[in-house]
Design a protein that fits this description.
single chain; alpha/beta; Aspartate Aminotransferase, domain 1; Aspartate Aminotransferase, domain 2; 2 domains; eight-stranded mixed β-sheet; 15 helices; 14 strands; 14% strand; globular; pyridoxal phosphate binding; pyridoxal phosphate; PyrdxlP-dep_Trfase_small; transaminase activity
Length: 396
């Protein structure tokens, strides 16, 4: 009965992959390299305790908020973007969302009709694939390498079939590969988008978590006429309060505001006031600096373990920020089978196929090191290395 009642997107199991990964990542009995969670030690508990009594006394704290977000938070954070990225969104170019995923859902709802073509990086964030597919968009993946999206390959795709509605890209410390788009390619991508009239959706979920302080120009700063920037506070503040933002051309923001009436109508006011208080106190910047150092240590532990314990025929990325390293194994090894063996040995990762819209990724996998206890990283990679070593290159 239920299978007959469910919409096609639900009956197909869309979203089950994310649910399973989040479930694994929350199991303390295993060493979970699967979920890209921020670590609880980076959450600003003391700052929130100190500000809560001040914030909750505000009459706006427990009331509905304006659809685009509370004026105080919008003023503080658009100013923050202007200071750090050199472009302050105008009032009609900015909206607060209930996390990055709501932002993705709003964008796909406003931009896609069934059958519309969308370009993404290959591989890309699985949540983006699911949001596009739930809107019945048709996805085509553009190759990546160590310098991020292959812009030359994108140009060939656009020249042969220019009808894409938008390109979704994660330029900074990409999920899942951990690589960043080079400065040269950023400029080339904006020029290409203008030539072809292509909208770029720039997801900056990990932008603030660069380990060495290198800050390449955002795509939104380089091309505000062709870029919608999608952000989240889950990695820099708290995922539990579910807040994000979109900075985009005014006509698109107006459409997003209308679409938000059919999701939650407004993002929770209490969380917005807590974030504004945290930001204006200087805690936001201090917290980002502390998080960079925190995750840098875990990255170093992860890379040292990968260097020491994996077979020499396994390739992996060396991220300069973010939460992830991307592994490639010989073609004969199926990472779904590998994942089953790993789970039996008490470790988890995400097989690569989930990060592609088609049937690629069978010999790739993602490791997330952000939430794994630092002392468990080496132990987990030792186990993974032993499992891989028990395969020969024919996958047996």
């Amino acid at each position: 009965m239920w299978q007959d009642l469910f919409a096609r997107s639900v009956a197909s199991g869309a979203g089950n992959e994310i649910t399973a990964i989040l479930s694994q990542a929350g199991d303390d009995r295993i060493i979970a390299f699967s979920g890209g969670y921020p670590h609880p030690d980076t959450f600003p508990r003391k700052a929130l305790e100190q500000s809560f009594s001040r914030v909750v006394a505000d009459p706006a704290a427990l009331q509905y908020a304006p659809t685009a977000g509370l004026p105080g938070l919008r003023d503080w954070f658009t100013g923050w973007l202007g200071e750090h990225d050199g472009l302050r969104p105008a009032e009609d170019e900015f909206i607060i969302t209930s996390g990055g995923m709501e932002g993705l859902k709003l964008l796909t709802a406003c931009l896609l009709d069934p059958g519309d073509r969308v370009l993404v990086e290959g591989p890309t964030f699985m949540g983006a694939i699911m949001a596009i597919q739930s809107a019945m968009g048709v996805i085509e993946a553009v190759p990546m390498d160590s310098g991020g999206l292959d812009v030359d390959a994108l140009e060939r795709v656009l020249s042969s079939s220019p009808s894409a509605k938008f390109l979704y890209v994660i330029p900074d410390y990409q999920n899942p590969m951990g690589v960043s788009l080079s400065a040269e390619r950023r400029h080339a991508l904006i020029a290409l988008a203008r030539r072809h009239g292509l909208l770029i959706i720039e997801d900056v979920a990990y932008r603030e978590l660069g380990y060495d302080g290198d800050r390449r120009p955002s795509l939104r700063t380089l091309g505000p006429d062709v870029v919608a920037q999608l952000g989240t506070f889950s990695k820099t503040f708290s995922p539990g309060l579910r807040m994000g933002w979109i900075s985009a051309p005014a006509p698109l923001v107006a459409a997003l505001s209308g679409a938000k009436q059919f999701t939650d109508q407004c993002t929770g006011a209490l969380g917005q006031l807590l974030l504004e208080d945290y930001g204006r106190s200087g805690g936001f910047d201090d917290g980002i600096a502390a998080s960079r150092a925190f995750y840098r240590r875990r990255r170093e532990a992860m890379l040292s373990a990968l260097d020491a314990h994996l077979p020499e025929w396994v390739r992996f990325t060396r991220p300069e920020g973010g939460f992830f390293s991307w592994l490639t194994v010989p073609d004969a090894i199926d990472t779904l089978t590998l994942a089953e063996r790993a789970l039996a040995d008490g470790i988890t990762f995400v097989p690569g196929g989930i990060f592609y819209p088609g049937d690629r990724g069978a010999h790739e996998l993602r490791l997330a090191f952000s939430k794994v206890p630092e002392e468990k990283i080496d132990e987990g990679i030792v186990r993974l290395g032993k499992i891989l070593s028990n395969f020969d290159r024919k996958g047996q």
